[in-house]
TrEMBL record:
Highest rank taxon of the organism: Bacteria
Protein name (Swiss-Prot/TrEMBL): Glycosyl hydrolase
Length: 418
């Protein structure tokens, strides 16, 4: 199986792998047979890839100790996935998962150091990412590395103890760790992924330009609990098209008009999306996303529910799986399986979007792109009226060459959308 596919081919469909036994703590008691059982259930849905999550402090408990056994277990997981026709993307720096932070002791308390700017920490991170990438480089089912899961949440509020950096420092860090992945596994699909604060939060040092210009593809993580579903409801156009909106918003910032975009995380969070409506939300979200050009693929969050035996998760985290904790297919999983079958062998080339909403270039105006903001609401109104909009930066709104390259024939200001 190829590690990647061009956006003009059939889109990729996958799941973020959440182990059914022990959640991500399974690395502490790694059981390859349990992993194989999980992967069998994922493959049975027809999916072609998984995104996996080594826990950073479990793999690198000391700055100069990357546990060989942990790396071997990661490779074993990747090989088990290959046996089931599944490609693998590996998130390196976990980092943050489902409301829990996982940072090694050598960055905290008595050893408190900024994880983005301290030279020793960054050097340790680079060696860790290089090591994981190199261990998998010769595996044909290895897609590549993602730097970490929404690691930008550590860089600003609302995190309770942020490692604050400037935009310039954030970009320098991204370039350094992406280069380490490339050194470990040359030519693979290496990328970084932020949660939506990079697109919507005015003081976030990780920026839309970084997301849309650094790395092999742009990753977007679409969660409607960010105020979208609260404001627009379960069936609102903004809710059903939120993932598509983020994909199209990323295109405003991309230098390459055909840069691939990976919808790397999206899910149906209860109670905003009640369980009985999860399948409908799944279908409408994916349908809207695949009506955007250049989508590399869709990776649903997540494969398995979190076990109720585990304490202290936010309530919604227990029910996001395509499969129950014991492997039974849920309605959202059945919906994904139907979609995969419908798309099998189809050529992917949606129509060009000819109407673009103007986005202010200023980082201090990013909140206009979030729920309730002028750009966000204008886009949602156009969708509700049957328009297929995209976005364009204000600095490019009169650039005829740029507009022509993207097929944009009409540029509208947010305030002009009634």
């Amino acid at each position: 199986m190829l590690s990647s596919a061009p956006p003009s081919g059939t889109p990729r469909f996958g799941a973020n792998y959440t182990p059914s036994q022990g959640w991500f703590h399974h690395w502490l008691d790694f059981d390859i047979d349990a992993v194989r059982t999980d992967l069998d259930a994922i493959a049975a849905l027809g999916l072609d890839h998984i995104r996996v999550f080594p826990i950073w402090p479990y793999f690198q408990p000391n700055r100069t100790l990357i546990r060989p056994r942990a790396v071997e277990q990661l490779v074993a997981l990747a090989d088990a996935a290959a046996e089931r026709g599944l490609d693998v993307n590996v998130d390196g720096l976990q980092g943050h998962l489902s409301s829990f932070d996982f940072l090694p002791a050598w960055t905290q308390t008595w050893h408190r150091r900024n994880i983005f700017s301290d030279p020793d920490v960054v050097s340790g991170q680079a060696e860790y990412l290089r090591t994981l990438a190199a261990a998998l480089a010769d595996r044909p089912n290895f897609i590549g590395m993602t730097i970490g899961n929404e690691i930008n949440q550590f860089s600003a509020g609302p995190h309770p103890d942020p490692d604050r950096v400037t935009q310039e420092q954030a970009e320098s860090w991204l370039r350094t760790v992406l280069a380490a992945c490339e050194q470990g596994a040359p030519g693979k699909l290496h990328l970084h992924a932020e949660y939506d604060a990079a697109w919507y939060q005015d003081d976030q040092p990780f920026t839309p330009a970084q997301a849309a210009r650094l790395g092999a593809v742009t990753a977007v993580h679409s969660w409607v609990f960010n105020g979208t579903a609260q404001r627009h409801g379960r069936t609102g156009a903004a809710t059903r098209a939120h993932a598509a909106y983020m994909i199209e918003l990323s295109k405003a910032w991309a230098d390459d008009p055909r840069r691939p975009v990976w919808l790397q995380e999206v899910g149906a969070p209860a109670p905003l999306i009640p369980a009985e409506h999860a399948a409908d939300f799944t279908e409408s979200t994916i349908e809207a996303a695949l009506d955007c050009q250049d989508v590399w693929g869709v990776t649903w969050w997540c494969s398995h529910d979190v076990s109720r035996d585990l304490a202290d998760f936010p309530e919604l985290e227990y029910s996001l799986g395509l499969l129950t904790n014991d492997g039974a297919v849920k309605p959202a999983g059945a919906a994904i399986s139907r979609i995969v079958e419908e798309w099998r062998g189809r050529t992917y080339e949606p129509a060009v979007r000819t109407t673009a909403v103007v986005v202010d270039d200023a980082m201090s105006r990013r909140s206009e792109c979030g729920p309730g903001g002028a750009v966000f609401e204008a886009f949602a109104r156009l969708v509700a009226d049957g328009v297929r909009p995209t976005t364009v930066l204000a600095s490019r709104a009169a650039d005829t060459e740029h507009l022509a390259a993207r097929g944009i024939g009409e540029v509208v200001l947010p305030g002009d959308v009634g």
